[in-house]
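User: Can you recover a sequence for this backbone? Please restate the input before giving your answer.

Assistant: Of course. Working from this structure:
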């Protein structure tokens, strides 16, 4: 038998309290209880993903190598996936892809158009008032 302990998703999901919190990152199981108070990003975010797959949350922050070393120290085993478990989470960069830049450009042109039309109107209104004044 291998030394690595195996946890099912439901095992992990039982550990959600501050004093006893597990999480899954890249299909490995970590006991983060001792680290909750020390986390530079705050305890709240860790407890939010307690008992769950935190891969995406962890990777989205872009944690340093130091953070990954700390993580290794908290490793307690591997995740054993069972039928019906949530699909593995991966950090998808595509989901955070910037929105179509043409939207912003379109808005920019719209703003210019409004400013130009406004300026033109002001100009003609001024001309009109001037000519009226000269007549009287
Ligand atoms: C056990 C897993 C985790 C470990 C060992 C860990 C470790 C660390 C470390 C060492 C830092 C300092 C910056 C760095 O070295 O990258 C940090 C910052 C941070 N972490 Fe985590 N983290 C974990 C999980 C998470 C999760 C699940 C979130 C969820 C969103 C998160 C959110 C953050 C944020 C927002 C910061 C930035 C704090 C700041 O710069 O003000 N972390 N983490």
């Amino acid at each position: 038998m291998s030394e690595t302990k195996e946890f099912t998703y439901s095992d992990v999901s039982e550990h959600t309290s501050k004093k006893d919190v597990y999480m899954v990152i890249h299909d490995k199981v970590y006991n983060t209880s001792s680290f909750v108070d020390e986390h530079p990003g705050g305890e709240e975010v860790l407890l939010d993903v307690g008992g769950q797959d935190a891969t995406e949350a962890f990777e989205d922050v872009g944690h340093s190598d130091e953070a990954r070393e700390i993580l290794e120290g908290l490793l307690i085993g591997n995740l054993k996936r069972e039928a019906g478990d949530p699909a593995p989470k991966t950090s998808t960069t595509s989901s955070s892809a910037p929105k179509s830049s043409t939207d912003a450009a379109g808005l920019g042109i719209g703003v210019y158009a409004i400013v130009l039309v406004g300026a033109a109107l002001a100009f003609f209104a001024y001309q009109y008032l001037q000519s009226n004044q000269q007549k009287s």
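That completes the design. The longest strand covers residues 20-25.
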